[in-house]
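Minimal example, chain plus fe (iii) ion.
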Amino acid sequence: MDMPVRKRPTNPAGLEPYARPQPWGMVGDMVIADALDGDEQLWAPVAPGIWSRPLHLNVSAGYYVHLLRVKRSGILQRHRHSGSVHAWVIRGSWYYLEHDWIANEGSYVFEPPGETHTLVVPDDCQDMITLFTVHGSLMYVDPQGASTGYDDVFSRIERYRAHFEAVGLGADYVKRFMR
Ligand code: FE
């Protein structure tokens, strides 16, 4: 299970909080205290040597935030984006065959809507973790752009549901990450 969220200190300085009600209809906030090193059960296998841990699955705006963990090198997949992607490399490194740069630990990457690229983990990296915020869908394609499959927040939710069910947490465990 998740580690409990730490409580902040009470307000010894008497700092003044916002006094008015929050807007009607607002969805709940979310804090994941141990997003990186918490329960291994929360990492869903997505392919050999590749896992994904959901952080935020947004079904009303059509995006998802997850940690991608990879423990193998080489081509992971080739995909086209319908929406934008923001990435933050937490561990290891990766690059796209279509660009000359490499994203290393601490790098931020913006991927523009419409781009097609081929994700590669270099041979000297055995443990890669990156935080991805993915808007819209990834369409998996061959080198000529022909579609071979896709992922979006809904396909991800199905995968996490199946995984959480399989490890005994129950499929509905995914709801705590949904907004
Ligand atoms: Fe991408």
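Helices lie at 153-166. The radius of gyration is 18 Å.
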